[in-house]
Amino acid sequence: MIRNDFKQRTEIVVGSEAIDKLRDANILVFGVGGVGGFVVESLIRAGVGNITIVDFDKVDETNINRQIIALNSSVGKNKVDVMYERALDINPNLNIRKVCALLTEENCSDFLCQDYDFVVDAIDMVKSKLALIKECDNKKLRLISSMGMGNKLDPTKIEISDIYKTEMCPLAKIIRRESKKMGIRKLTVVYSKEKPSETGVDEADGKKKRVNGSVSFVPSAAGLIITSYIVRELIK
């Protein structure tokens, strides 16, 4: 008999056994911004029952154009706090844990003390990404890592691949090179084959950091593709 709750329409597609698998799944998501926020949202709506979210950042006005948690009312709040509240509004029975912290090489292993079914890397910082990739490889945890989605306009160019088969993406090039140095044999990533535009602006405070542009429909698409991959793997 089909259930009469928010999982009903999903169960029609995947079946009751898959719904139980999703309910029991335990997922760790690093970064709840443009990509990661859509991963978390869609995992919850798909029926995943256990999620840990990690992000050190606060919602900024510049996030409103693309991040699902970014509203005028949430500007200035910790991203994990906003995502946590939103998640429980979707599923009050969700087992969710929030950590407001920056992942570093020194603390990375502390985050991976549970036997997660999947780890999602939606981190912007290269050093943090590499630390997570290395630690997940050491602990044999299933990881999917998001590459660069900035300065791009065509979500149909996004695909899932192994890092060593990627092309065009500048971030993937760096991760590919460094992963090889670390002895990583394979790494599942979501990346875009679209050539990024060369637009960007320098920080107004005079720093050399270059700020890339981003739109609403590319990072979000990457997040949904990640969730699709995870769900399909979990219910096999």
CATH homologous superfamily designation: NAD(P)-binding Rossmann-like Domain
Strand content: 15-25%
Taking all Cα atoms into account, the compactness measure Rg is 17 Å
Distance between the first and last residues' Cα? 22 Å
Strand order of the largest sheet: 3-2-1-4-5-7-6
Give the helix tally.
8
Structural class: alpha/beta
Low-confidence stretches: none
Give the second-level CATH assignment, the architecture.
Answer: 3-Layer(aba) Sandwich
Largest sheet: 7 strands, mixed
Helical proportion?
A: 25-40%
How many domains, in number, for the residues? 1
Give the total of beta strands: 9
Q: Please write the string of helix (H) and strand (E) elements.
A: HHEHEHEHEHEEHEEEH
Mean pLDDT: 95
CATH classification, class level: Alpha Beta
CATH topology descriptor: Rossmann fold
Domain THIF-type NAD/FAD binding fold: 13-159
Organism: Peptostreptococcus porci
InterPro entries: ThiF/MoeB/HesA (IPR045886), ThiF_NAD_FAD-bd (IPR000594), Ubiquitin-activating_enz (IPR035985)
Pfam family, one: ThiF
Keywords, separated by commas or semicolons:
236 residues, alpha/beta, Rossmann fold, 8 helices, 9 strands, globular, tRNA threonylcarbamoyladenosine dehydratase
Q: What does it look like?
A:
It comes from Peptostreptococcus porci. GO terms for molecular function: tRNA threonylcarbamoyladenosine dehydratase; ubiquitin-like modifier activating enzyme activity. InterPro entries: ThiF/MoeB/HesA (IPR045886), ThiF_NAD_FAD-bd (IPR000594), Ubiquitin-activating_enz (IPR035985). Pfam families: ThiF. This is tRNA threonylcarbamoyladenosine dehydratase. The chain is of the alpha/beta class and 236 residues long. The chain has one domain (13-234): 3-Layer(aba) Sandwich (Rossmann fold). Helix content is 36%, strand content 16%. It has helices at residues 8-14, 16-24, 36-46, 79-90, 108-111, 126-138, 170-182, 219-234; strands at residues 26-30, 50-54, 95-99, 118-121, 143-146, 158-162, 188-192, 201-202, 210-211. The strands form two sheets. Strands 3-2-1-4-5-7-6 form a seven-stranded mixed β-sheet, sandwiched between helices. Strands 8-9 form a two-stranded antiparallel ribbon. Helix 6 crosses helix 7 (170-182). The longest helix is centred in the C-terminal third of the chain and has 16 residues, at 219-234. The chain is globular.
